[in-house]
Write a structure and sequence with these properties.
globular; 4-stranded antiparallel beta sheet; alpha/beta; 17 strands; Alkaline Phosphatase, subunit A; single chain; 8-stranded mixed beta sheet; about 35% helix
């Protein structure tokens, strides 16, 4: 059956091991069903440790910095490429300030909404939008009363009450687009629930956690991390439970989007791609969230492609998220722009060819301290770190100091044992093969340093949202 539509779902901060490939998973039953029937890329990697470094590849198949030295959309976006061929396009982003018009992510979309601003008119509503933690506690406190009111009115109770992440706003717009769009269409949805601070609705937290996590205990976990206090085992366990709850919340929303596709009769003609834009750390290398590092927990992400033209399979070859735009174009029969650097994996999805890929390159910029705020956004703001990954090896280099790290993920999945100085034939071969790739990419970034915009100012509403996410 031919593919006429495509839906790209990206989930902020979703690490690879947080997703189950089985539909009987308590945490990701919907994504698990997609994995059971589609193609799972078990070694999919982000091209950066956080959204502004990762998304130029996801929507433009272009590495961050190499086009203009900036964190913007870069080359021609997938929406521009598809719209020029008559495809209706829509993009809905759940208030990530880095994915706004300011950085060019609206280009090519017939409908585009970031939910960063526009609906908040009073000082109170603006304050809540800039302080999602406060908003979450107010919504959590009021949720039992809203649920009782729903039941008294005889209304459905299939959605959560809390919506600090704007998930429900994004979902409603996406379902409306699906309902009203004529084929062919392309829809991009970006969820923020899995990004810190984690505030799942109690119903979804209960679905993934065997123990009841009280509101007070949730507050304690966020307060300790927010104040920079030491994270004990209980706090870390609570944070992981909250993280899992937000994943279940997103999974449920994806299920409702799939139902909308089925209701309109578009499901059998639609390619569905689900991916994390980067991962999340839980002290594996000393920190929480996604500070400037290039280790497994931040770079290894889920990527699932469910196509009416493909079957169930898991592919172990490494792929980068830059493959997403050309893969979607390939499925829809649209020629990808010459400037794109990723290659389509759609022939492998259809089972026509084996998957052959080059090492996947990722980038971050690290300041004098890993936790430096604001987090560096330009090569001039700190040391440029570049990594190259194969199915087996991870090689990381600080291009400013020359410091290097090498990990054999087959023997050391958590990248805890640095083999860079080990005298070993296989390790030597990996270093020799990956070092020139890292250096070549660093040289590309350096050539564009002069083109980087020194003015890093952003609109007030975007700045407020970035502050709310901990980026200012």
């Amino acid at each position: 059956m031919a593919v006429t539509n495509a839906v790209l779902i990206t989930v902020d901060s979703l690490r690879a091991d947080a997703v189950s490939p089985r539909s009987d998973s308590e945490k990701t039953p919907v994504i698990g069903e997609l994995a059971e029937r589609g193609t799972v890329f078990t070694n999919a990697f982000a091209h950066g440790n956080w959204t502004p470094f990762s998304f130029p590849s996801i929507l433009s198949s272009s590495p961050v910095f190499v086009e203009s030295g900036s964190i913007g959309a870069g080359a021609r976006t997938i929406a521009e490429a598809l719209r020029s061929e008559g495809v209706a396009t829509a993009g809905f982003n759940a208030a990530n300030g880095f994915l706004t018009e300011h950085w060019g992510y609206d280009r090519g979309f017939d409908e585009f909404e970031t939910f960063v601003t526009g609906s908040e008119t009073s000082p109170y509503s603006k304050y809540l939008a800039a302080h999602p933690t406060v908003q979450a506690w107010l919504q959590l406190g009021a949720s039992p009363f809203y649920r009782i009111a729903r039941r008294l009115r005889g209304e459905a109770d299939d959605e959560q009450i809390t919506d600090t992440s704007r998930l429900l706003d994004v979902e409603r717009r996406a379902k409306a687009f699906i309902r009203d769009a004529d084929s062919p269409f392309f829809l991009w949805v970006h969820y923020m629930d899995v990004h810190t601070p984690y505030f799942p609705a109690p119903r979804h937290l209960r679905e993934v956690s065997p123990r009841r996590l009280s509101t007070l205990r949730m507050l304690r976990a966020h307060a300790r991390t927010g104040l920079g206090l030491a994270v004990d085992d209980r706090t870390l366990s609570d944070l992981k439970a909250l993280y899992d709850g937000t994943i279940r919340q997103v999974d449920a929303s994806i299920g409702r989007l799939r139902a909308a596709l089925a209701d309109t009769g578009a499901a059998d003609d639609t390619l569905l791609v689900v991916a994390g834009d980067h991962g999340e750390e839980f002290l594996e290398h000393g920190h929480l969230a996604h500070y400037p590092k290039l280790y497994e927990e931040l770079i290894h992400v889920p990527m699932i492609v469910d196509s009416p033209e493909g079957g169930a399979q898991a592919l172990r070859e490494n792929v980068g998220l830059e493959s997403i735009p050309p893969t979607i174009c390939d499925a829809l029969g649209v020629e990808p722009p010459d400037a794109w650097e990723g290659a389509s994996v759609y022939p492998a999805v259809r089972g026509e060819t084996d998957l052959e890929t080059d090492p996947t390159v990722s980038v971050t910029v690290q300041g004098e301290q890993t936790t430096q705020q604001p987090i560096p956004r330009r090569p001039a703001d700190g040391d440029v770190l570049v990594s190259a990954r194969t199915e087996r090896w991870t090689y990381i280099k600080n291009t400013a100091t020359g410091d290097r790290e090498l990990y054999d993920r087959r023997a050391d999945p958590g990248e805890q044992r640095d083999l860079v100085d080990r005298s070993d034939r296989e390790a030597d071969e990996a270093r020799v093969a990956l070092d020139p790739i890292v250096d070549a990419h660093a040289e590309r970034i350096e050539r564009e340093r002069a083109n980087a915009d020194a003015d890093d100012s952003v609109p007030d509403d975007v700045s407020d949202r970035l502050t709310a996410l901990g980026y200012q």
